[in-house]
Each structure stands twice: as C-alpha cells, then as structure tokens.
Amino acid sequence: MTWKRHIILILSTTSLTLLALEIGLRGYDAFQGRSFWKTSGNILTEPIKLYPFRTFGFDLYKTVDGQTYISSRHKELYPVKKPSNTFRIVCIGGSTTENLIEGMHYPKALESRLKERLGHDNIEVINLGNSAYATPHFIILLALDVISWKPDLVILSENVNDLAATYFPNFTYDYSNKFSNPFFLPDYASRFTIPNVLFQHSRLYWFIHHRLHKNPTYNIQRKSYGGVPNSVSITVFRRNLQSFVTLAQANGIPVLLASQPLQPSEEYFVNHMAYKPYNDIVVYPLHNEFVSHHKHYNTIIEEVAAETKTFYLDNDAILRGDTDYFVDPVHYSRKGIEQLAENYANYIIDHNIIASQQRKSVGPSLKSNAN
After folding, report:
1. Is residue 32 located within the same domain as residue 68?
2. What is the mean pLDDT of each successive set of 10 residues along the chain, which is 371 residues long?
3. pTM of the shown model
4. Which structural domain range is residue 184 located in?
C-alpha cells in the first residue's frame, strides 16, 4: 500500500470516527429532549441576551400558538392572566430557589404537596429563582412583572447573594460593585474566537470545549472582617427587603419571608467557592466570620418580617447543618428540596393562607399578617 493510500485511509477513518461521535452526541441530545439539529454553542445565530434592568437571567414569557404565557425558571408555562378561582404563588430567590435536582425544584414539589393535601388542582407555584439574583433583582421582578400576574402569595428567601456583595471591593448601594464584574455580564469577545466561529455547529466541538474549560479552580482570598457584616451593607439589605415587602403590600400581595439554610462546614464552602472566576478580586472573611455574617443576615430577614407584619418561616432552624440536605454550603440535595417544600406546605396550611376546599368556591382566604 502506497503512502498516499495510507493517508487516505487514515483521513477516511478519522472522518468516519468524528462523524460517528457527532451523530452519537446529537442522538443523545435528542434522547434527552433537546434538539438533534441545534447546538448549544451556535454563537452567530444565538448571541447572549441582555435582560433589561436585570442584565442577566432567563426569558419570563413564551408565546405558544399566538398566546403568551409566563415561563418559569424551568420553563413550566402559566397563563399571564390568572384563571378564576386559582391560588397563585410566586417563589423569588437566587440559585437556592432555582435549585433543580433530578428534575425537581422546591416550588414544583410545593405545588404538588398543596394540591394533594388540600384536595384541589387550582394552585400554581411559579419558580422565578435565578443564579446570583439578589434583592435588587427581586424588586425589579416584582415591580415590572410579578404584580401584573396578580399572585396571592410571594415567597422570598435569599441571603448569601446579597451578603457576597459585601466582599467585593468598593461596596455600592445598588451592588454594582459586584454585578459589574465580567462574570455577570455577556462576554462577547471571548466567544467569537476563530475555533468557536469555525466549529460552532459541531456538537462534538462543544462537548470537548466544555470539558476542557470545566470547573477551573481559583485561589480563595480571606481576611478578618469581624463578627458582624459591614454596617452599610446591613442597612442596604434591610432597606431592600423593606422596599420589596412595602411594594407587595401596597398592591395587596401577601409576602412570606424565609431564612436561608446554611451548611456551615468550611470544607463545603471551600469546595464550592474555589470555582468562582471572580476570586481574583473578592476577599472573603474568615470562615467563622462568614457563618456569623450569614446568621446575621437571616436575623435581618426575621426582623423585617416582624416590622412589616408579614409571614416568616425559619428554614435555617430546620435544615441547618444536616449534610443530607446540602450539596454545598447553601444548595440543596433532592432530600433538601423535598424538606424545603414540606416546610412551606406546612406553614401555608397551618396559617390558613389558602382557604379550605369548601371556601375555595368563593375565592381564596388570606390572613393579613403572621399574628
């Protein structure tokens, strides 16, 4: 066999192998419910979106057959106009609300529990959690969208995303010291590289690309901040929670504020935070101080609930420290998601926030406060 035939054989074998891998990966995507033809890295036809006022996030609406629906974080669809005799709950938070494990998130589990235990199906629980969202995002979501959906209850639980803004340099009242970091903004330049553009339609290319760039580690910087967070950041966090509740109450929407559970292990913290690409500018507190700061922010949530006479649930007291409930310091395992949903279901039923099935025919019955 001549050297030319050797080259042709090698090229042919390589091409067929690559084609088989490409087809195999696309077939796997199709089996998982994704598109066989469309790749996640198609950067020319699908550039990263800017979400007005929120900057980053997800599409809140989807149009199907000419009708527009609310699209939850995990793409469950709900009519924009709330159906009659329907009790609508909107869950707002960061990644701990978004938290999806084995196809389950706590709002979905909560909806299922409420329907089963109350004996009727006209209950909606909409997940608006998004990774890194903090109280400024919640106020915007409430003001520009959620109020128009006429919810009967809004659940808000968030702590650590607001707290983290304290550790970014030059703290600002709007958290721009944190959210102006390139990690939170579309980075078009790094995506329009020659290989990305040339091979953007190849599923195999993106499969290899994502694995080569998966979870690089970064050094964690730490220093002592003292046992209490920065006084200005405390004031801003309290102000934002108060503004959220006041806006909701002014529009007749009850709010359930909840503490955020923490797994206080330093090992959990380091393993999770070591992958944050902004660690070159963030300086975290000593770990015992971080735990203290987190607890202090939970206390603020409880105080705001008392001051505004709104509902309050201490999830931290129920889940805190149990490793079975967590996969890192704040994100939940499947067991944690189920327990969180159970906490909310018990609270909502015990406080009669949703009327019994017999009274449902004349509309939901709400308590005006937690007392």
Report:
1. no
2. 78 87 81 69 61 90 96 97 96 97 96 94 97 97 98 97 97 96 73 72 77 74 95 97 98 98 95 90 96 98 98 97 94 97 97 63 40 38
3. 0.82
4. 61-362
